[in-house]
Amino acid sequence: MNIMLFHSAYGLRPAVREAADRLRAAGHEVWTPDLFEGHTFDTVEDGMEFQERTGKEELLKRAVLAAAPYSDRGLVYAGFSLGASVAQTLALGDRKARGLLLLHGTSDIAPNAQVDELPVQLHVAEPDPFETDDWLSAWYLQMGRAGADVEVYRYAGAGHLYTDPGLPDHDAEAAEATWRVALGFLETLR
Fold first, then answer.
1. I need a surface site. Which of 42, 101, 102, 107 has the fewest CB within 10 A?
2. To 10 degrees, what angle do helices 56-67 and 44-54 make?
3. CA–CA gap between residue 153 and residue 77 (Å, rounded)
4. Are 60 and 88 in contact (CB under 8 A)?
C-alpha cells in the first residue's frame, strides 16, 4: 500500500519516523510530510499554539500538496491525533483513497461528505480527553452515513498519544496491540 502518514501537534518526531519504518518493514511505501516545516514541540500546548498560528487552512494546503503527487496511486491516509484529523479530511475528499487509518484522533465531517465503503480504522484511548465518548458516538454515526466502513478500537487506561514511546502517554502494551491490528487492516487493503 501507499501510505501518507501525518504527524501530531508535536511535529515530525522520531516516533512518526519509527512508525513509518514499521510500515515499510511490512512492505508498504510510506511518506511522512512535515506540515510544521521542521518545528517540533515538547508539549502538546506548544504544538497546538503553533498549529493555531499557522492556521487550519494552511496545514490542509500543505497536506494536499504533499499528497497530490501520489494520490493517483490510491493512498491510504493515516495520522496521529492532529495528523489523523488531516488524514480524515483528505481521505473523505479523495475518490481514489484506499483506506483511512486514524491513530488517536478524528475530525469534523462535512455534511456533504460521501465515500463508497471507504475502509476506516480508528485506534483511541479510553477515556481520551480529546476524543470523548459522546463525540466518538456522533462521529461513528456520521462516518457511517457518509458511506465509510468503520472499525473502532479502544484502549482502556492508555494516554492520548499512547503509541509514542517518547511521551508520558506511552503504553507499550496498547501500542503493540494497535500496530498488530493496524497492520492486519492494511493487509486487507492490498
1. 42
2. 90
3. 18
4. no
Three-state SS annotation for the chain: CEEEEECECCECCHHHHHHHHHHHHCCCEEECCCCCCCCCCCCHHHHHHHHHHHCHHHHHHHHHHHHHHHHHHCEEEEEECHHHHHHHHHHHCCCCCCEEEEECCCCCCCCCCCCCCCEEEEEEEECCCCCCHHHHHHHHHHHHHHCCEEEEEEEECCCCCCCCCCCCCCCHHHHHHHHHHHHHHHHHCC
What are the pLDDT digits (tens) for 46-65? 999 999 999 999 999 999 99
- CA–CA separation, 69 and 124 (whole Å): 30
24-48 pLDDT per residue, tens: 999 999 999 999 999 999 999 999 9
C-alpha cell belonging to residue 135: 463525540
- Whole-model pTM: value is 0.97
Rg of the Cα atoms in the chain: 15
CA 72 to chain centre: 20
